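Internal ticket - ligand job 395, pyridoxal-5'-phosphate:
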Amino acid sequence: MDKKGINTRMVHSGEKPCPVTGAMRMPIYQTATFVFENVEQGARRFAGEEEGYIYTRLGNPTQNALEVKMADLEGGEAAIATASGMAAVSSATMGLLKQGDHVVSSEAVYGCTHSLFKELFPRWGLGVSFVDTSDPEEIAAAIKPETRMLYLESPANPTMSLVDLEKAVALAKENGLKTVIDNTFMTPYYQRPLEKGIDLVVHSGTKYIGGHGDAVAGIIVGSKEDLDIIRGTTLKDFGGIISPFNAWLLLRGIKTLGLRMERITSNCQKVAEFLQQHPQVERVYYPGLKNHPQHELAQKQMDGFGGMLSFELKGGYSAGKKLMESLELCTLAVSLGDLDTLIQHPASMTHSVLELEDQEEAGILPGLVRLSVGIEDGEDIIKDLDDGLKLIGQA
Ligand SMILES: Cc1ncc(COP(=O)(O)O)c(C=O)c1O
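stdout (structure tokens):
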């Protein structure tokens, strides 16, 4: 059968009506364990000689439907749904690395990814170098004989700098490195890194994939070989699997992913253009703006610019604080990819786990404010920001 378009696959892929009841929607298989017909069958399932479910930490039909859908959308052979984005990041990286290995990572990554690599990895004898992965020369210079993995975020959280995926993949291939990318900001609707030769995609499914701010979840997508290793080691033994209910919430959320991304992106472009011309605003970081230093690269490797932007105010941190506290529609909260517009301060919130010098190195300045634009009317978001910005000038 012809491969259908991505919107069709978001609705249908991985799901079939229940052959017993005819239920159109995937049931929530809210069970911890599965019954064997006899002892021999249990033994065959444990030995991997017979397909079938054993125990929900090892697999469950609702989880499986989500995994099939996400593998299809990202263009991977297989997927694993996890309890959170951090369970995806930690299970994928630690499942494929061993003591003595070294990782080259983007320096601007989500705060807890940074602390996993910087604080926890050394406890298990894993090394890491954080570099500006928007510069392929910096990646090349950081590769050591023991480097095994290149870990990327593009666009980076919260600086919105991009990695040239084709160049990064070429360098990784030359040096025999496994490539992992966090695709949370773009989702497979706008960016499919596996098509560019990246080995593994990870997501915080809490964000656009779930899309409604009501479930914490994660996803890993890649080759069957890599995912079998992760499933049989870190997933099985650390146990960070998704609950059947959260898997179901994500299955439901994905059906509207394309609609949400289109609307969010159209709002975000308008908000970025509004902020860019505002006299109180020093700088806006959004790949959809023509003056973003990597706007052309964004057009080349992404199908849309997404709903995340950061900006700095001329009045620095104190002006940003005043703005965030004065807004009525935009909600002061971390997380992103929600239906509601969320605003937060990376240096003291999502990236506060980074030491000051690591924040500076990664471009997370004290005055930087991050906005996750929602699906409200764009004019209302802009009006809220405009009202807040007017207040800054007042005593
Ligand atoms: C880009 C990115 N990756 C990973 C994570 C971690 O995801 P979770 O909170 O679902 O563990 C986050 C969380 O904010 C994120 O923004």
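Auto-summary: Residues 215 and 246 are 6 Å apart (CA to CA). The pocket of pyridoxal-5'-phosphate is lined by residues 84-86, 110, 157, 182, 184, 204, 206, 216, 218, 335-336 (CB under 6 Å).
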